[in-house]
Write a structure and sequence with these properties.
By secondary structure, the protein is an alpha/beta fold. It has 12 helices and 13 strands. Helix 1 (16-30) crosses helix 12 (354-392). It starts with a strand and ends with a helix.
Length: 393
């Protein structure tokens, strides 16, 4: 049996490499000699910069910048050289990710992407030719306005006073936008963004209503944030003539996708389309007998561009079965059967606290993988017996 393991990370718990190692240990407990390929997968979120830089044999640059809650943090971005061109790799999760927002401060009305802009400026200071940005695992919903402000965009109130954008709620104070002071070096670089193509900025399916609660917003705050982003979109259309409300990817990372698109002229890409330029999993999946994937939470949103669903999409080209190991099974998880995931299993073994689950996650992932694979082995054994009986008449 040929097994390919292609997991994502468990948000705020383990990165993709740590999940992959735990799954590999689980498989080895069933059969140490089994033929296995392990491919930790990134989606633009946590681990994006380091993974790309490792593949390209570049380096990480560390920088003190503004965190999502306004605190000073040490973040990083990557640099690699290819064909004589210098590329910076920026991971928004490393500067404005949910993991960086203290639990008692989780309110997307009050978190900022300002640090993302600071990392872009740091990359420009190094004279890069290209910037690759991964959008994922964000703790912000300011439409990228904080990032834009760091790059020189001015946001004015009705009295022509500059509004400092500290979070999504400040967008409601803005009356006009001016880009005359935007850093001119942006015109000399190409910026590409790996994002969830299905996330949009506004409306009933907008980022505030879909992801606001995951970032700590109450139902009332979700509506306030939704109104703020609608207002922001109207201001962008008035100032720049671009309607970003429902553009694919505009809602990525709390609307950072929209901000990057209109203020830096970045090109947004479905994240797996661009990531596959660096990590080739299709060939390896094509020769697998079974594919194991993983995600921190499997629910109705998983088919909307999450790693397990994308892995399943590739596997189904060869009718290869896919099993997902997940931290929790959420609302509407059964839609994943239609997305190509043939079975899924939670690692949670008993009622427990979030803190305990995070502590036990590596061990539980290992044990769950072992259990799933033993069940698969039973199925193979039954099939072999039936085929033998048929052969014997």
């Amino acid at each position: 049996m040929k097994i390919v393991i292609v997991p994502s990370g468990f948000k705020e718990c383990l990165d993709a490499n740590e999940v992959a190692l735990a799954m590999e240990r689980g498989v080895r407990r069933v059969d140490p000699s089994i033929d296995m390929e392990v491919i930790p997968m990134i989606d633009g979120g946590e681990g994006f910069a380091k993974t790309i830089v490792d593949i390209k044999r570049g380096e990480l640059i560390y920088k003190n910048v503004t965190g999502p809650a306004g605190q000073k943090i040490e973040s990083h971005f990557g640099i690699f050289v290819e064909n004589g061109k210098r590329t910076a790799v920026i991971e928004m999760a490393a500067v404005a990710g949910l993991k960086l927002v203290p639990r008692n401060q989780r309110n997307p009305l009050k978190t900022t992407t300002y640090g993302v802009g600071e990392l872009i400026l740091a990359a420009l200071d190094l004279g890069v030719d290209n910037i690759l940005i991964g959008c994922g695992d964000s703790g912000t919903s300011d439409g990228g306005a904080g990032m834009a402000q760091a790059l020189g965009v001015h946001f004015f109130d009705k009295n022509r006073q500059i509004v400092d954008i500290h979070g999504g709620e400040d967008l409601l104070k803005v009356d006009s936008i001016e880009t005359a002071h935007l850093d001119r070096r942006l015109q000399d670089v190409s910026i590409n963004v790996a994002c969830n193509w299905k996330n949009i900025l506004c409306g009933e399916e907008g980022v505030a209503r879909v992801f606001g609660s995951q970032k700590g917003a109450t139902p009332k705050q979700v509506e306030q944030l939704s109104a703020a982003l609608e207002h922001y979109a109207a201001l962008i259309e008035e100032a720049l003539g671009i309607d970003v409300r429902s553009m694919p990817g505009s809602g990525a990372s709390g609307g950072l996708g929209a901000g990057l698109m209109v203020f830096t002229e970045a090109v947004l890409h479905p994240r797996f389309d661009i990531i596959m330029n660096y990590i080739n999993i299709e060939e390896k999946i094509s020769i697998a007998d079974i594919v194991l994937t993983a995600e921190g939470s499997l629910d109705f949103q998983t088919p909307n561009g999450k790693i397990p669903a994308e892995v399943a999409r590739i596997a189904k080209k060869n009718n290869t079965p896919v099993i997902a190991i997940t931290g929790t099974i959420g609302k509407g998880a059964n839609v994943n059967y239609d997305a190509g995931i043939d079975a899924y299993s939670s690692i949670i073994q008993k009622p427990t606290s979030l803190e305990k689950a995070i502590e036990k996650a590596p061990k539980w992932i290992e044990e769950s993988t072992e259990s799933v694979l033993r069940q698969v082995a039973i199925g193979y054994g039954i099939a072999e017996k039936r085929n033998l009986k048929k052969a014997l008449g």
